[in-house]
Amino acid sequence: MGIVAGLDSSSEFTRIVVCDTDTGAVLRQGYAPHPQDNQENAGGKPSDVDPQAWLLSLGEAAAGGLLEGVQAIGVSAQQNALVPLDAQGNTVRPALVGGDKRAQVAAADLIDGLGSRQAWAEAVGCVPQAQHPVTKLRWLARTEPENAQRVASVLQAHDWLVWQLLGRPARRTADRGGASGTGYWSAASSSYRPDLLDLALGHQAALPEVLGPAEAAGTTPEGLLISAGTGETMAAAFGLGIGVGDAVVSLGASGSVMAVHHEALVDPSGMITSLADATGMHLPVVHTLNAVRALRGTADLLSTDLEGLSDLAMKSTPGSHGLVMLPYLEGEKTPQLPHTAGSLHGLRRESMKPEHLARAAFEGMLCSLADALGVLRARGVEVRRVFLLGAAAELPAVQAAAPMLFGAQVLVPQPADYAALGAARQAAWALGVQQGKLHPSAPPAWQGAATQVFEAGEELPVGQAVRQQYTAVREQTHPGAFGPGGV
Question: Is 189 helix (H, G, I), strand (E, B) or coil?
Answer without folding.
Answer: coil
